[in-house]
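Thread: quick sanity check before group meeting

JM: Hey all, I'm pulling together slides for Thursday and realized we never actually wrote out the predicted structure for the chain we discussed last week. Dropping the sequence here so it's in one place. If anyone has concerns about the input, flag it before I start.
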Amino acid sequence: MEIYECEWMHQYKTSATKKKFVDGLMTVKPRHDLTQEKIIRQVQNGKLFGMLFCKIETPEELKPKFEEFCPILKNTMVSRDDIGEHMREYAERNNVFKKPRRILIGSYFGEKILLITPLVKWYLDHGLNVTKVYEFIEYYPSKCFEQFGLNVSEARHTCDSGPSKAVLAESQKLHGNSSYGKCLTNKEKHREVHYCNRSEVTKFINSRVFHRLNAITSCMKSSA
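JM (edit): ok, ran it. Output follows.
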């Protein structure tokens, strides 16, 4: 079910029931007393936990220290012009890397990068500078997936009791790995929105199911 944001905000402002329900879900109240300097200081002191959307840089004098492994990992577009002379010559000689591509790299800076605060604290403790804070999202630190992780680990350990448990151990390995990937999936890239009336709903649902089954069947045939 979907609704335009302006329509929802109107309902929220005019309906006491909806306002009470939404306000009851807010366990962390907005904080308006935090300046950029306070956020950075409290993150370094370990008093704030959450996600920091920021700009971060490595000072020039520290770059030799990190030249073997640049400290800031980011997913960005890279072309031949961005790589070193040796690898550029290799790419040109072998006719590869002709077009820019998005890859994970190590860098000395991050522009509008989303980082978890323990990592930001590590950066600050090692001399990097947060020069701009665009947004901070505060969370209560808790091990929300602790039991899930323990269950997967315990199931993996059962393979030591005999070959008959190997299938369980391997399935739990897949379970643990896939859950991590699913949590990081950008669902906006895997979504289609259709505005329709009640008579058209079934048609769209069946159409999506049909295409997915065809895709699965094709994969199974190619694997065979």
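AS: nice. Helices lie at 5-14, 16-25, 36-44, 85-94, 117-125, 146-157, 166-183, 198-223. The two ends are 40 Å apart (CA to CA).
JM: adding both to the slides.
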